Amino acid sequence: MAAQLPFRKTKSLAEMSDAEWESLCDGCGRCCLVKLEDEDDGKIYFTDIGCRLLDDQTCRCGDYQNRTARVPDCVRLTADNLAGLNWLPPTCAYRLVAAGSDLYWWHPLVSHDPESVHAAGVSVRARVFADEDALPEDALSDHIVAWPGKWPKGAKARAQPRAEPARKTRVESAPSPARARAEKS
Predict the structure, then answer these.
(1) Is the pLDDT of residue 165 over 60?
(2) For the whole model, what pTM was predicted?
(3) What gap in Å lies between CA 125 and CA 129, rounded to an integer?
(4) Overall number of domains in the chain
(5) pLDDT, position 100
(6) Which residues partner with 61 through β-bridges?
(7) What is the residue-wise DSSP string for 125-183?
C-alpha cells in the first residue's frame, strides 16, 4: 500500500480545512514582531519588539481567538491575502507551501515536535527585547534587526544536521625535566 502524501503536498492553501491551515503555522512568532515600513520606498524592517499579545516563550499569541479585536493592525493570514504580504519571513510555512516548496526538518509537521522550531533557532524565543507597549513608538527604529528576514544557520537543511563529532586535538605538553636536560646538552 502506497504511503499517503501529507495534505500540504496534495491541497492548495485555499483547499485546506481550518485545522490543516492552522497546523501550517510553525509557531516561530516572527510574523508577530513589530515591523516598520519606510514611507519613501515601502521597504519593510523587522524589529525585535513583539506584539502586545505575543508570548515570547511559547512564541504563540496570548489571545489568538480575539487577536484582531484586541490588536486592530493584526493581519489574519488567508489564502487570498498571502501573496500580497511582503513581510512574511522566508521561513514561513504558508509562504513555502504557496511557492510549491516543502517544509524543513524543524517544522512540527515534519519533526512531530513543537520544540524543534525553537531548537533550530527559527523562533523568536529569547530574542524579543520587549512588547510594543513597553516603549514609545518613536523608539521602535532603535530596535530594527535583520535576523527575522533571514534563514538561521542549518535551518535550510532538508534533514536535521547531525552533531559534529568531537575533534581530537593534539595537546603539546611541556617536556619532562629529563627531556629538557637532554635537549640543553
Answers:
(1) no
(2) 0.81
(3) 10
(4) 1
(5) 93
(6) 54
(7) TTT--EEGGGS-GGGGGGGB-SGGGSPPTTTT-SSPPPPPPPPP-PPP-PPPHHHHHHH
